[in-house]
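CATEGORY: protein folding

GOAL: derive structure tokens
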Amino acid sequence: MDFTFDDELECLKSSYSADEVIYWNCNGARILKFTLKDAACITFEIPEAYPHIPPQISLASSDLFNAEKSTIEEEIRNYATKIVGSPMIMDLVIKLQQILEEKKMKETLKSKTLMLRTQDYFLAVIQIDHMRNKNKYSKLLTSWVSELDLHGALIFCQRWIFLILQNSKKNIKEFITRLKIVPIDVDSSGKPCKEKMCKILYEGTGFNSFSSFSTEELKTLNDLEDFMTAQNLENIYKEIMRPALSI
């Protein structure tokens, strides 16, 4: 025996509460309305040839713009054409719930990402005078950065060397302490020596500009300015770093 719309309606009524699903007949048109937990309502007008012809679909939600509603309605209609010929109302309702849940998750992720980008993080800008043993010096800096979960960049630009660190204030302070007390380079005679000539140009808050740590080899001061601008640190460059670029 064929599964009729009346059979499907009974299944829907047993699966959803009276507050969630309402059915009525209006001038011969069979209307089925679902109210979902996220304040969205979807209404189906069931044609005589259903399920061989998909129902007409109308979506209402105070949380959606008209363009968003139209896009979601079209997505559900397209989905209905793929399952035409069999009872589909519950499938369409579940599809709508999935679409709305995915939309909510994307918006939450976007909000968190924006918050992280605009949140103030502790930032330090250090100028290093020179590196006699560049490979050893850079390798040790990178290992400390990894150990202390810091982000930023080690920047070589002509004769200038800058180290930008970002994340936890406590860990940046620990990094700076190590930089001053741990032998990290070699002196003119090749003996291990501590960093005595670095300058802390800035310690304070700044945008969350880095998601990792990198080493940058820049050819010109314009390249340096462009790099800082790309990290949303243009003010740090203009007010902190550029004055240190005495030639």
